[in-house]
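Comment thread on ticket #2218

A.B. wrote:
> Attaching the input chain for the structure job we discussed in standup.
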Amino acid sequence: MPPKKGESKQDFLGRCAKGKRAAGMADHKAMAECAGEWNKARMSAYVDDGRMVLSAPVEMRLAGAPAEGEAQAPDRFAILAYTGKVIEWGWMGRFVIDLKGIKLAKTKVPCLYGHMSSAIVGTIDKGSSEDSGFFVTGEFSRVDTTRGPETLALAKEGFPFQASIGVQGIKVLHVDKGATHKVNGQTVEGPIDVWTQSSVFEVSFVPFGADDDTAAIAMSADGITLSPEDNDMPEPTPAAPEIPSAALSTPAPAPAPAQDAVTAALEAAKLAVENTAKLFAHGETLHLSPKDVQGVVALGLPHEKATEKLLELAAQNNPPLGAAGRIEMGADEADKFRLAASHGTMLRMGIKPDDKPAPGHEEFRGLRMHELAKVCLERSGQNTRGLSPTAVAERILRLSAGGASTSDFAAIFRDAGHKRLQNAFEEAGSTWRPWCSLVPATDFKDIYGVSLSEAPDLDLIDEHGEYQEASFKDKQERYHVGKYGKLVSLTLEMIVNDDLRAFQRLPKLLGAAAARKESDIIYGLLTGNPIMLETGKTLFNAAHKNLASGAAVGGISGGATGTLHTARQAIRLQKGQQGALLNLVPKYLLVPSTYETIADVILGSLASTDAGMNSGVKNPWQGKLTPVVDSRLDNASADAWYMVADPSQVDTVEVAFLDGIEQPTLTEHEEYRTDGLVWKVRHIFGAGIMDYRGFYKNPGK
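C.D. wrote:
> Ran it. Output below, let me know if you need it in another format.
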């Protein structure tokens, strides 16, 4: 039977189900067929936006008066849990649950009020998939659980209950953009996720749902509708159940309360449901299971305290995404929110994200700091209505102090600060990288740079001769990585005053400081002239034949007898550990700013720069060396200069980064003793000189 024009879903389901049950059809089958007929006329999907619960219509089947000598049957209910349609879910994107793969998580699952584990209504004992949707049926508890009898009494009065079910994906099929997939009798087009297997773990009665078209229908055992449209139908008179236990009782239906009391009760119920749903939504972003969240809800704490409890629980045990085959849908949503908010905040700070700004970043680009904090608080389930900027800042700092990794606000500013730190680090630049070698370090222990000697000469092998095994010598130089860092704070005052400039200034300065620290240490090795373990002598030493002396000492000069010629020849003539000539090629000329201009002239001129040479004589140094200028060399000596061989031919300075991370990082700081968020700027690296043969020094005077 089709719906009548202007007929509500509640009235249609009551009229339709009454007729089908009168024909002997089972409860859930009657509800399924009626819902299918309704959906043919008006397709509807039931979903609470942003929550891991689906809104659904509820049918209450109430027991009638028992026959003489018979015990009263339990009062039952039936719920249309899901219609099989595509769900648009905010940050989550689009998904659809395959009706063929949905089932109850257990043989029996709890039926609660407002997702509160302490508010037991009854038990779901059957789930059934039909063409028109997934249905669950169950019975009200006859134990005096407060919420059970109260919900039943309100249902008998005709209160328009709706339902909210918890469902989790077990297996998910992703359909790419442009591709199609057939599910639930319809063809869907990607991008979309298809939950091929899923389970319902809990159902709750709620007074308010996201879909105003949902309905609740109460019916008696003989199928008589209690819909307001059927005033000519007699109302059932439920009798008290006979239960042989003094501890079990069923209260008589309460008289209808006054209108003011009803309004107040509904408002209170609405707030309780909203807060509980927020806790479940926040639990999803923290990768907590519904059971974990229910345990927190059962404590009956104020909403703010319950939120803090979730953070503590997540810090103790935070399972990874997809653990035990479970799909945690909230993690993806949280990532998308944080990415959009981080990109919006970066752009407000004048920082360009690495990739194209995430969808939705525009919403956050114009937000002041306390306004963004307010959004994050509301996402965590806290009521911010009427709070001043200072109160908002205090709350977000307290929330973040419970574990910075669980706070959207802390993560957003950590990402923005980290990007500013790395940008500043890269902008500062490093002059040492061309002439040094980079390696990863796995720990803080001493690193031994092992260098093999040159290979021995190849032997001439006659017709019946034997090949001899080559022997090598090795040497070791030792160094280790060190940890360097400072703290960066986002204070209460910065948030209230929206002082974004002050916040971004610290990571910018510290990024440049990290680059300076690298250069300080590496050039410090060069100018410090350390002792080499291989020979027990200093890096630049007459015994190493890499230190100018006598008439060779002087500034930079070209020509056949100039200081550059002497330096290049010294490196060319270096011998390996076994005495072989290495024929190393000098590649870099390291000079203080004193020689910067003359080095550019000598190395860049087409004609010879020697005195007395005409413009037709070619400059032998053009393009032969790469000049490297650093003021740290001036600080050590304004006269000394260095020549360095190609590091691909011989080991020079080895620079190690812990786990191969070459940039400074911004990480959470464990102590929160001040009014602010605190992060550590940390840079872990070390450097050591591996071989003297690739270096030459001229003191300059």
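A.B. wrote:
> Thanks. Noting for the ticket: Confidence is low (pLDDT under 50) at residues 42-53, 209-259, 318-331.
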